[in-house]
Amino acid sequence: MAKLILSMDGLVLKEIPLTKERTTIGRKPHNDIQIDNLAVSGEHAVIVTILNDSFLEDLGSTNGTVVNGNPIKKHFLQNNDVIELGKYKLKFVGEAAPAASGEKADFEKTMVLRPAAMKAAAAAAAGGGGAQAAVAQRQAAVQAAGAAAAATGIADKDAAPKAAPAAAPAAKPGGQPLGAIQLLSGGNAGRELELTKPLTTLGKPGVQVAVLTRRPQGYFITHVEGANRPTVNGQEIGAAPHSLKDHDVIELAGVKMEFFLKA
Amino acid sequence: MDLTQTLEIATCTDPGMVRSHNEDSIAADPANGLVVLADGMGGYNAGEVASGMATTVIVTEMRQILANARPYEVDQKNNEEIAARLVREQVLKANTSIFQASQSQPQYAGMGTTLVVCLFYDNRILVAHLGDSRLYMSRDGKFKQVTRDHSLLQEQIDSGIITPEQAKKAAHKNLVTKALGIDPTVEPELHEYPTKPGDIYLLCSDGLCDMVDDEDIGMTLSTLGGNLKLAAQQLVQMANDNGGRDNVSVILVRVLREYPGAKGVMAKVFAWLK
């Protein structure tokens, strides 16, 4: 949920979540955010919040509304925007701001496309544009336009990845060093196995099985089945995944093996 | 018929790495062979309310009805199986509850939820779904998607506007064309498939299939199938490792043995004696 942080002279006074569609700011007590300061007009400004987007509008205040140092009449609030009202500052903090930009968040929220919007999207896809009027919900319009753009712009390969922030995983375990295990005992002693897959199972099904998982944080070993758990450096592992370090020695189903990282 | 010894069920749900709320909701009733997964949508906490209502209504209503019903019997009036009718009725009931709540309470306006419901009976699985939550099946090492999303993307793929490859990169993955609780009435898509002992069924929200390739999901089920609980946790972990942009929920169901519905003369006599 987006929120505003009210402060004066660097001192945080309170946090105000933007739960309502219209949040009014002014000096008079009926405002949602009342700022009792003569530099603030009775009805100074309003913030309109639609889904994840918030718009700030000045209501013809005497001293005006300033965002990031610029006087504005109407403004689409972005994360970390600072609204100045006299001596007071209101910082706008968007939803889930640090992890995903506002634009991405918009595209990832699951939404229903109603039949009316569907037709609009289809029309847009076929004719290219002109769909917005038919779409009641603003968000649906944005999405439909996006859909139309994607549908009509297929040939444009460069555009596709840009329009698709959701598809690219944030962190593929590609950048980390590759791990491997070498068998130290048993019939295949000396054999080496590279751990390239996200999951590698080891052991004998029905007797004792463990899985090595490759994650961005490194490699982990987890017990899967069997009465006994595998040991790492002589210590039996718990139920939770156990992080593997370079040159750890694993013992599983009577076979010893060494885990190591390849350069 | 108690299916507790017939079905092994493991569930896992997680808000993911980005969202603060978990709008997904899952429920399982192993005795009646019923699992339900819902991915809610709507402002602030309305998504959670919608998905929670869907799972609660369906599980509690079905539990009451299944206590005295034989889902494999065929309704003489319209030649429809009892199971399909029951599931459809409960889905509609949940739809009405959510829709009325969204109409009467302003903070819930516009809420809705996707839904996958699976009922296991008589060596079969009946699946009803709405929206982009999915059912997958793993049998004899083969992994495939069973349900087809009700989404704009799927419609575009079907009509040939885009290829499945392009769909993976599409920006509008999130637009569903059907959902529970949005309109006064809804028609869930119902299908029925035979099951075999050893099958693993996976119900998941789009937080899993958007973040993890089908191939990797299939591999996880085939390698960790021996430990269903771990497989469920592993799937959620993979989604989170890949970014975890959405809530992730999974329900895994493994069929351990045959579970035929009582039929035939002997069964009828037996039922009559009871």
Question: Could you explain how this protein is built, in words?
Answer:
- The complex is a heterodimer of chains A (263) and B (274).
- Chain A has 263 residues and is mainly beta.
- In chain A, 15% of the residues lie in helices and 39% in strands.
- Chain A contains four helices and 22 strands.
- A six-stranded antiparallel sheet of chain A has the order 2-1-11-10-7-8, with no helix packed on it.
- In chain A, helix 2 packs parallel to helix 3 (138-152).
- Chain A is rod-shaped and about 85 Å long.
- The model of chain A is unreliable at 97-107 and 125-173 (pLDDT under 50).
- The model of chain B has no long low-confidence stretch (mean pLDDT 89).
- In chain B, 35% of the residues lie in helices and 27% in strands.
- In chain B, helix 1 packs antiparallel against helix 2 and helix 6 runs antiparallel to helix 7 (228-241).
- Chain B has helices at residues 46-66, 82-104, 152-158, 164-169, 206-209, 214-224, 228-241, 264-273; strands at 7-14, 24-29, 34-41, 74-75, 80-81, 112-121, 124-130, 134-139, 142-145, 175-176, 189-194, 200-204, 248-255.
- Chain B contains eight helices and 13 strands.
- Chain B is globular, with a radius of gyration of 19 Å.
- In chain B, strands 1-13-12-8-9 form a five-stranded antiparallel sheet.
- Chain B is of the alpha+beta class.
- At the A-B interface, helix 1, strand 12, helix 2, helix 3 and strand 15 of A face helix 4, strand 10, helix 6 and helix 7 of B.
- Strand 12 (111-112) of chain A pairs parallel with strand 10 of chain B.
